[in-house]
Amino acid sequence: MCGIVGYIGKKDAYPILIKGLKRLEYRGYDSAGVALLNNTNQLNVYKTKGKVADLEAYASEKDISGCIGIAHTRWATHGEPNSTNAHPHIGASGNIALIHNGIIENYAVLKQSLQEKGVQFRSNTDTEVLVQLIDFIKTDKKVDLLTAVRTALKIVIGAYAIAVIDKTNPDVVIAARKSSPLVVGIGEEEFFLGSDASPIIEYTDKVIYLDDEDIVVIDRNKKDVEIVDFNNEKIEHEIVTVELNLAQIEKGGFPHFMLKEIFEQPDCLMDCMRGRINVEANNVTLSAIIDNKEHLINARRIIIIACGTSWHAGLIGKQLIENFCQIPVEVEYASEFRYSNPVINNQDVVIAISQSGETADTLAAIELAKKKGAFIYGICNAIGSSIPRATHTGSYIHVGPEIGVASTKAFTGQVTVLTMFALALGKERGSVSEEEYVRIIQELNNIPEKMKELLKIGDDVKQISRIFTYAHNFLYLGRGFNYPVALEGALKLKEISYIHAEGYPAAEMKHGPIALIDAEMPVVVIATKNALYEKVVSNIQEIKARKARVIAIVSEGDVTVKNMADATIELPQTEECLEPLLASIPLQMLAYYIAICKGKDVDQPRNLAKSVTVE
Ligand code: M6R
To answer: Which residues contact 118 (CB under 8 A, 6 or more apart)?
Structure first.
């Protein structure tokens, strides 16, 4: 939620900042801005409503010189998206500019107190309080910028990653974080800041991931950055090498990141399984399970916490773990869990699932579970993000950066890790039979090839999408392992095409939603040949009797459903517990092509942001 980028060095900052903002635009895109210090130490700030391209157009005729600057792409929380509320914000003295990702919770009290001291505010944002406070402290107490920033951060309550420049300190950028991500890039006589490493990797692969309450002072005349805590005590941080390449964060010939990410899934799943699945030895190994056997084998209960798509993966995880490990599993929305009073103790294991590793609700839920003594296992994608650092152990899904706001490859990566987790732990506990263990491992290994074949349905799905583009409501139905797939399919459609869609367990249809069904309501049914096939066929008959059009996802060679449905998409045969990995592909494509037919911005749908770092 909001992307921040900074540069200080010898090059022109503006092109680096704009490129960086474009890489971070997935985090928010309702307004954007940049602050630059030119070589006469004049502070130039340009801000616009809209996307980074709008900012570029606006700034094209302006003075964009200078080797030091900060820039921001916004997802509005406080104050509507417009150029006044866009960041950077400037302090009353006109010297200091600041960008911020997060929320200042006590902004109203602070604003009032500053206003009583005569400070005039320009925007409706919580962020402006921070820059006005820093500016006020610096002027009033006659202290240096670092002291002013430290003092202000001790007063504010909330979540932030900030970067500050000051025209009276033209060689320095100060940045800090608490509960919002911030990475420092270390180049040759130049330094970078980013909400993640994507704006940095083009210039250097050496980075420092800041921790909560770190304040970093970056001086372009010094070789190293200096990191201090709120009490000005020095903190040492390891410089790490990021394993991220440019190809991973570019579209690579695809019109959208979402389509690229859909097509990457076979390779992503191979990366996810590499070194973990050994088909010759019929073995699956997760180092986190081996290293934490006693916690995991003896778990009294597992609670999965997540949001959105990751929560849907968690619902599949529940079925996998209960099947193979015989441990009871509950799946909770992190946002509900964090404010509940859950009965948890040190015999419980909490699995936190998150693509970004930064979701504020999931992080808060982890802290609560930790306090109550649970052992926390993270399943994340973004390497070095906050959740993997807050958990006791975990497994990365290794699907590479996911940039399209609608999650695709992260979902199948999460389900793959959950499958490996359930199999590996089931083996340790002796709760999965050798025959089943080997059979599922062998088939899991076949999934990427089957997915590759399945991805050839693109043109068929495009055709189907054209027919259904004008529907106002969709129902998605599935049972067992495919019920969460129905939920996920509906979420994908809602997110990017703005069509209302509901996911339901197929048999629940008769308990209410059937009242909605008529010729105007397309129903997507996952009707693969598994144990519940006949029951789902009956549901399709009930739908057809009410004149709705049915898009059915069926197993290869199915005739019965094909004869009943208005459109069908065939899936390769696989193990029932692995069907979600295949069944989710046509639903991702359906959502994508319907959104394209409607002319929507699939990578940056309205009102959404990729990582939800605020409550
Ligand atoms: O990064 P996380 O997995 O924690 O994010 C959770 C949700 O915000 C996310 O899955 C969201 O629902 C996606 N936009 C779904 O496509």
So the answer is: none
- Which tens digit of pLDDT belongs to each residue from 453-504? 999 998 999 999 999 999 999 999 999 999 999 999 999 999 999 999 999 9
Residue 611 Cα to ligand 1 midpoint, Å, equals 7
Report the number of secondary-structure helices (H) and strands (E) in the chain: 20, 26
> In Å, how far are 111, 131, 152 from 136, measured between CA atoms?
12, 8, 9
Domain ranges of the chain: 3-248, 251-432, 454-603
Label residue 505 exposed, middle or buried (CB < 10 Å: 0-12, 13-18, 19+).
middle
Mean pLDDT of the chain: 95
pLDDT at position 385 over 80: yes
Which of 262, 335, 356 to probe ligand 1 with, by most ligand atoms within 8 A of CB? Answer: 356
The model carries a pTM of 0.86
HSE-up (13 A, CA, CB side) for residue 221? 4
Q: Which helix (H) or strand (E) holds 307?
A: none
**Residue 268 annotated as catalytic:** no
Give residues (CB < 6 A) around ligand 1: 307-310, 354-356, 359, 362, 405-407, 491, 495, 608, 611-612
Query: Matching CATH topology for 251-432 and 454-603?
Result: yes
CB 330 within 8 A of CB 303: yes
251-432 classified as CATH 3.50.50.60: no
- Rounded Cα distance, 40 and 57, in Å: 24
pLDDT digit string, tens, across residues 188-221: 999 999 999 999 999 999 999 999 999 999 999 9
